[in-house]
Amino acid sequence: MGTTKPLTEIAAELAVGSIVEGSVQVEGNRLRVNVQLIDAVTDEHLWAERYDRTLDDAFATQSEIAERIVVAVGATLTDAEATAIAAVPTDDAEAYRLYLQGEQYRLRPSLLQRDLEAAQQLYERAVELDPEFALAHASLSYVHGLMHWFGYDPYPSRAESQRVTAETAIGLAPGLPQAHWAMGLVHYWGQRDYAKALEELTFAVEGLPGSAELWSSVGYAHRRLGHWDQALAACEKATVLGPRDARVLWDLGGNTLVFLHRYEDAIGVLNRALELVPDFQAVQLLKARIYLLWRGELDSLRNLLERGPESYGPYGSRDRRRVLLALWERKPEVLLTLLDRPALVTFEAQGSYEPALLYAAWAHQLSGDEAAAAQAFMGALVQLDSAVHELPNDWRVHESRGLALAGLGRQSEAKREADWLTRSRAYADLYARPSLSAARAMIFAQAVLVEEALSEIEPLLAGPSWTSTHMLRLDPRWDPIRDDPRFQELLERYEN
Length: 496
What we know:
Blueprint (H helix, E strand, L loop, with lengths): L6 H8 L3 E10 L2 E10 L5 E10 L3 H15 L6 H8 L6 H14 L6 H17 L4 H16 L6 H17 L4 H14 L3 H14 L4 H13 L3 H14 L4 H14 L3 H14 L4 H15 L3 H9 L10 H11 L3 H8 L6 E4 L2 E4 H12 L2 H21 L4 H13 L3 H13 L9 H14 L3 H13 L6 H6 L4 H4 L2 H9 L3
Antiparallel strand pairs: 1-2, 2-3, 4-5
Helix pairs in contact: 4-5, 4-6, 5-6, 6-7, 6-8, 7-8, 8-9, 9-10, 10-11, 11-12, 12-13, 12-14, 13-14, 14-15, 16-17, 17-18, 18-19, 19-20, 20-21, 20-22, 21-22, 22-23
């Protein structure tokens, strides 16, 4: 049997002075709501009311309760907030129920493809029942954007679906903050125009200032523009508004701090996230990555992979992490054993598109079998030549193609792929650019273009990035330039 925390403890966790308690009963078409506002410190009942209405009055009842609570705590609503509270999103109760179910799937922290697909289906059913349900159109646009951004569906048609549904939401409700939020994410995820995204998101905040999730979107846009302080300030704002939202602590907080090489601060933020959601796998994975970047420690990752899930959602599979671990540990036999499965063809994640044959090639290189390595590199290149026709503007494919060409000794072609990365839309993104710079550096290193590799590596060590001296020491793919004195000097100069 579950236990209920004391109100004082709940209030402390939420950093609030008052708590709303309530119950809802539905019998047929009747709706009974009991609600009370309690002072968490004195346990005094500040206000209480019972509502006996019909389901048709559900939205009006919701608005009335919200307005009474605002009055009871002595607050004042802005015009935008008053309008939002009074708004009726749809006249179809079933459409609203489907929308709420979709929100539950969309907001799951794991961001698994199956959850986003379930949310999409629920939103689509909601707008079928009520084609003028702007809020559901906005959330449907959000899910299309997530599917495209996370690489579950990287094709242009998905980005187009995101744009069309956002425009539908704005056309139906031009003043709806969520519609402008959705359009902001079209600029963000679909077009990588972060300045325009920030304009739309800032406009949305004016009408929805109490949304932690919206403030986190503002923070993400600042991060992409390289506004690190503003990103962290938005994270702080979002955690005040939604103190139990572990996703904000993990991504906007933890990832930003790691990116800034503030590893100890990041660990503290991630521990707060795990207190809220102890089995939050993406947080555990990020902690393991921090210990690798910060201390060169692989034990945390090794232990996590023994018990972790098969998939980390948009951040890749457990199989890929095991393969990387074997590569970093320089265990070619283990690596080839892990790869010896017909199902392992390509490792796809938000930031990578890697034929398994690439890892087989690097395993053969570690074993000293250059002929087998060349054969594997050629197989990977054939696969990537096909992929680049389907995804010609996908930097992940060009990165892997550059590595395959470098492995085959086709230096000038590898350099062309590395240079292509600087022309990709992602390269203008100041949060993504260091990943593309690291990809360029590795292609150059594999192609033994030492000057070019070193010119990319130093800014990564000196500024925000996902690169550290420990990673450079561990990963054998840097071996072609490892003995160069300038490379060794960089490792010594930027040692953590």
